[in-house]
Amino acid sequence: MVWAIVSGALMAVQGAMNATLGRLMGLLWMLASVYVIGTAVAVAAALIFSPQPLQPARAGPYIWLSGPAGIAITLLVASAVPRLGMVRTTTFIVVAQVLMAAAIDMFGLLGTKAQPFSPWRLAGVAALALGSYLLLRDWPKS
Questions:
Q1: pLDDT in tens, 27-66
Q2: Predicted confidence band at 142 (pLDDT cuts at 50, 70, 90)?
Q3: Is the dihedral of CA 125, 129, 131, 136 positive or negative?
Q4: How many CB atoms lie within 10 A of CB 90?
Q5: Could you write out the DSSP letters of every residue in 54-99?
Q6: Radius of gyration of the chain (CA)
Q7: Nearest-angstrom CA–CA distance, 48 and 91
Q8: Residue 116: pLDDT band by 50, 70, 90 thresholds?
Q9: Rounded to an integer, what distance in angstroms lies between the CA atom of residue 45 and that of residue 49?
Q10: Are 16 and 88 in contact (CB under 8 A)?
Q11: What global pTM score does this model have?
Q12: What is the pLDDT of residues 72-106, one digit of tens each?
């Protein structure tokens, strides 16, 4: 749970940093820079810490779309933040993530184990919808 919380916080920080880099150097140069540096760090970490060798043939071809999906996510978030702000962008992201995660869980997609969508989860989605509305609504300024 702690790792998920840290990950969520880092996603917001990364979104803001990427948006700033995109403004300063252009979105495509930001994207290239972030992924070159990220690739170098990931390869170094794998070489130093991974107990197993690289085994690319173990994954089905569609799973490799994770790489381009990551590139699209980085580009889209960096594009949205300057237009919407961090809170609005993050709210839309979280809502979309939860809805997609629910579908993935419910149907056991992408190699995951199917998990039923319980009434409690439905109540959670409703609470998320209400919270999202409150975050996205333009409240009158006093």
A1: 999 999 999 999 999 999 999 999 998 887 777 788 888 8
A2: low
A3: positive
A4: 20
A5: --GGGS-GGGGGHHHHHHHHHHHHHHHHHHH-HHHHHHHHHHHHHH
A6: 18
A7: 37
A8: confident
A9: 6
A10: no
A11: 0.81
A12: 999 999 999 999 999 999 999 999 999 999 999 99
Angstrom distance (rounded) from CA 133 to CA 130: 5
Return the SS3 of 6.
helix
The one-letter amino acid code at 104 reads I
- What whole-number distance in Å separates Cα of residue 142 and Cα of residue 42? 49
Q: How far is CA 73 from the centre of its chain?
A: 7
Q: Per the structure block, which two tokens stand in for 32? A: 């290239």
Structure token digits, residue 31: 């994207």
